[in-house]
Amino acid sequence: MKAKLFDYVERHNVIYDLSGVTKLFCFLLLTAAVMFSYDIRAIAVIMVLSLVFLRMSQIQFRQIKLMLLYVLIFLLLNFVLTFVFSPTYGTEIYGTKHVLFPIAGRYVITSEQMLYQVTKTLKYASVVPLGIIFFLSTNPSELAASINRAGVSYKAAFAFSLTLRYFPDLIRDYQDISAAQQCRGLDLSKKEKLGRRLKNILNITIPLIFSTLDRIETISNTMDLRGFGKEKKRTWYAAKPMKGNDIFALGLSLVLFLGTLAVSFFVNHDKFWNPFI
Amino acid sequence: MESNRKPVIEFRDFSFQYFSQAEPTLHDINLTIYEGEKVLVVGPSGSGKSTLGNCINGLIPFSYPGEIEGSLTVCGIETKKSSIFALSQHVGTVLQDPDGQFIGLSVGEDIAFALENECVKQGEMKEIVRKTAAMVNMDSLLNASPFELSGGQKQRVSFAGVMVHEVEALLFDEPLANLDPATGKTAIELIDQIYQDYHKTVVIIEHRLEDVLHRRIDRVIVMSEGRIVADLSPDVLMAADILKTLGIREPLYVTALKYAGVPVTEALRAGRIDTLDVAAVQNAICAWDAAQPELEKRPANESILEAAGLSYRYVEQRPILKNLNFSIEAGEMVSLVGTNGAGKSTLAKVITGICKDPEGNLRFHGEPMDSWTIHERSGKIGYVMQNPNQMICKSMIYDEVALGLKLRGMSEEEIRPRVDKALKICGLSPFRKWPISALSFGQKKRVTIASVLVLEPELIILDEPTAGQDYRHYTEIMEFLRSLNASGTTILLITHDMHLMLEYTPHAIVLHAGEILHDGTAVRALTSDEIAYKASLKVTSLYELATRAGIWDCEAFVQHFIDYERSTAR
Amino acid sequence: MKKMFKVSTKTIVATGLGAALFALLFMYVKVPTGIPETSIQTAYGLGAFFAALFGPIAGGLIAFIGHALSDALQYGSPWWSWVIASGISMFLVGLVHTKIRADEGEFGWKDVLRFNIYQIIANVIAWIVVAPVLDIVIYAEPVNLVFTQGAVACLWNAIACGVIGTLLLFAYAKIRPKKGSLTKEAE
Ligand SMILES: Nc1ncnc2c1ncn2[C@@H]1O[C@H](COP(=O)(O)OP(=O)(O)OP(=O)(O)O)[C@@H](O)[C@H]1O
Ligand SMILES: Nc1ncnc2c1ncn2[C@@H]1O[C@H](COP(=O)(O)OP(=O)(O)OP(=O)(O)O)[C@@H](O)[C@H]1O
Ligand SMILES: [Mg+2]
Ligand SMILES: [Mg+2]
Fold first, then answer.
1. Same domain membership, residue A175 and residue A205
2. Which of A161, A163, A243, B279 could cross-link to C20 by cystine, CB 3.0-4.6 Å?
3. What ipTM is given for this predicted complex?
4. Quick check: is A116 in a domain?
5. A144 is a domain residue
6. Does residue A128 sit in the same domain as residue A242?
7. From ligand 1's centre to the CA of B45, what distance in Å?
8. pTM of the predicted model, to two decimals?
9. Nearest CA distance, A244 vs chain C (angstrom)
10. Average pLDDT of the residues in B115-123
């Protein structure tokens, strides 16, 4: 059973010591850059850098093993589906057709299609290390403060903090409720038929949802009693002040972001980098 | 003298009716609480104590709508014309449910919550938080997350959370529910210390009268069916006969005095055992003790549940149960006691199969249980969980209790009488058509007990069945369990109530940090200082009374008390 | 009278816990449809229920935070196009908030119809318009792929909202006592 939502392990290094706001902005700037650009060179630069940052953050491989597996499956599926649905999409985008080898009918492998698909895969993949760094190296307590300081209303930011606080509790409740049901004779084993299983799922989720509604009442009472929402602003106990490194990191991200835009606008004159003409 | 004291809380002909109720829950309340007073509110479950408290802090009418008549002023503010925010500047509240209180991701954040809302600067805030945490001895754990804290520690954090801003009055709604005896005692001492050091007005709502009276209380307010029926000093209260008639447990030593034929008067100062005039009652008590007959012991039976080398861990690094060996005889009534976090609930989950694959062996009637599924075990072992909200899955009381029988495929005609019987036993018949959401905590707990009782299992495990119950329901539930036990059902009780252990369960297992510290008679568990101290058990006031009256065999005295109660009082 | 965009403390708490529930169901409680690799996300049923009870802001944020969080936990980073579409779908369902009185114990067949019309329109806009367009703009995904995916998602999510959301609203209305309805019966 997880005690915390993200496996946040307290460490001290350049990445961990950055303020949460910095990391949030860097995350947003860099992901925006890769999402905007369709130039494999720019994406590759950010990908390589983010891998370097990931290394610097000393996050352990076992912490992220499972995520990487999921991402891999997703990317593979997306790769195959794209080809199945639109094997000629690359040639439409780039306007040329360099055939590598034909398979059958319209299924022809072209360099254009390969570039398009590899670029897209890389686009998806390069976001992953950035996200991992942001979520795993920021103290959960600080996340909400960062989001608020990034301009989001403090109420929404606090809702996020509550999500992080109560997620593990809800998982524990879920297990306890399912145990309590089984103790009273509910059979949850896989042997049951689909309809029955659906009913069983409802038997557990409905009490979970309704007990959560009760809990919402208690928590909002507690928060009211302690003065939540009476001012227009709010300070944060867990916020981390900005230091020199933060400015540097922000600067670097901004340069990368603007650089990517510049490449598209002034070098490629298009969202796509087209090496075929 | 009263006239020149400043009133902090003033109810005038006050009544309140919840939106969904057909009748008012509070009637004609007239009550004044003065500055610097320390007041205790007691009353049967459902008598409106929490409702009264919620009127003071403004949750009523701002969070729970309803109709107010009459007036209530808090620090000069008429509550119904004010707001929760304005009132929270004057009254700090610790609510009944400990889990809903802890809203921060760490101890420091939770304590700081009120300050954050007031936009206190971070530097200043850290300083105040550190100081407040030190007041409740939590300053070394500022970074701990709620999952790493014991129940008692969470309680301390919630105390600190309301003390960060300067309020005039503190309101505690059942601060002791779910705390082990020693932690409960510390909590009362902590409240008293805050009261003395910071001169706040304190209102405590609590069932555990005796535990609260561990420290001085100015007045006790007794509620029944939404009315205030008494407002007396503890000394006078003990002399009066109100508590018993309302079904509230009086302190054990007071009961003992009455058994010994001592007329309890105000002059005896029986409000607290520390102030009791022992010299005046000594002779009567010793004489009574000497006159009690010794009862015979019951012969041993074959074992129903046996554990050998039982260990369990949730996560690899931290074993929760360590090599447990014990045996429970068929037809026994056993209690499982120990500190918060000792592993009691975990043991229950291992026995019922919720926690899977423990190391070691469990046998039921000599048969190994390893391969039994939860489902199979549930036919033989019933389990009432600690937190009622996790067991309840229907919205109506009747359906909830009937669920287990329905799942076993019984017909409606068979189900109805059994459910009705269980509801009656648990004192829930008047509510049978209510939605569960309209019940008090204690009432919900009884619903879950009823829902397991209908299944008629061979062994029942109850995790703190009496937490949050008043004495009448406590007695009703326990007497029912005893009669169930007499008809052959084996019962394992997890409890923090030492007197319950003594009164009902001859056999006690004391768990401490996952190990068995004691497996033998209940009386022995409490008389051995080493066991009692290590497992945070607390000797009951009967021991203190006996010691101070100069009776050397306290163990026998307690046994006499219990035997006497059994033979005459019921 | 209910206000559509009022944000009280309760709305905030409902958003926070609702999002946690959403993420939990999103990751662990899926109902297989029989077609491989597709399952009904019960989370959308929950989201629609909360949206109807607490309004569009809560609904939108619950799905946005919940979806982003479960993505972050599973894939390391949120997949923004679908996260945004999730948020928008539940925001739109939340517009039914002022017309539903389940919290006062009232939820009849008319309300069922109303709730379902809202949720179907919401799902169509979110999954057949917003999500595919975002996918095309951000990732330049092929048009026919994203619209196929969108249509499938729309179908299953509308089923989840329709079945589970409606059931939850019914159950909830049943336990909400009406004004002055509670009396004790004689023992
Ligand atoms: N939100 C509510 N809506 C309707 N009725 C309520 C509500 N809360 C409490 N009641 C009713 O008011 C009565 C008094 O409840 P209250 O919670 O004040 O009791 P209590 O004395 O604190 O009990 P306990 O000792 O079990 O906590 C109960 O009969 C309960 O059903
Ligand atoms: N699901 C879980 N996952 C991980 N650790 C757990 C889990 N449940 C309980 N624990 C830990 O196991 C230990 C024993 O918990 P348990 O609930 O058995 O204590 P307890 O004796 O019942 O305490 P209390 O008197 O407070 O109810 C605690 O330290 C707790 O933090
Ligand atoms: Mg109460
Ligand atoms: Mg326990």
1. yes
2. A163
3. 0.85
4. yes
5. no
6. yes
7. 8
8. 0.86
9. 27
10. 90
